[in-house]
Design brief:
Order of helices and strands: HHHHHH
Low-confidence stretches: 3-7
Helix content: 55-70%
Number of domains: 1
């Protein structure tokens, strides 16, 4: 006898899709580049401020969790717990970044737009998950990974930014 689920289809955990697989690659590359930069750039360490170290530590947590969250089973207790850690790391990274204004003569730069977007989007990711709106939750997570991790992460390496200087000399 077949069982009928009482959970709406949109709320059921979904299989890992192509978008998940593709989006899991980027944070892995950026995390590897970040670790390589930190290892190569030990001469820079004494000049790095506490808020920048905190920013790096938080984003490393988020980048390390991203492929795991995108590629593993969803909807179970571990997914929820790791999801709270991931969203918290993303939110705190964005908040800390608002105090990092090394370029642009101490003012905000265009990349801070992603920080504001993350501060708004992070709670929505949790709300959508708690409402069992898997489709909107997944879209929001994909958007956060693309914008706040991949785009922002890409722009941390060129243009004489700290990690770029550490990695490329």
């Amino acid at each position: 006898m077949a069982t009928v689920s009482t959970v709406p289809a949109a709320a059921r955990p979904t299989a890992v899709g192509l978008a998940d697989r593709l989006l899991a690659i980027g944070p892995t590359i950026i995390l590897s580049a970040t670790i390589a930069a930190l290892m190569r750039g030990s001469a820079f360490w004494p000049r790095i401020t506490l808020n920048i170290w905190l920013h790096i530590a938080l984003i490393v947590v988020a980048m390390a969790l991203t492929p795991l969250m995108l590629l593993r089973k969803r909807g179970d207790r571990l997914h929820r717990r790791l999801g709270y850690v991931w969203v918290s790391a993303m939110l705190l990274t964005a908040l800390v970044s608002l105090d990092i204004r090394v370029i642009n003569r101490g003012g905000f730069s265009p990349i801070h737009i992603l920080s504001i977007w993350t501060v708004i989007q992070a709670p929505l990711i949790v709300i959508r998950a708690r409402q069992h709106d898997a489709v909107r939750h997944r879209r929001a997570v994909h958007g956060m990974v693309l914008g706040a991790l991949l785009i922002a992460g890409f722009f941390t390496f060129p243009f004489n930014r700290l990690l770029g200087s550490m990695l490329f000399g």
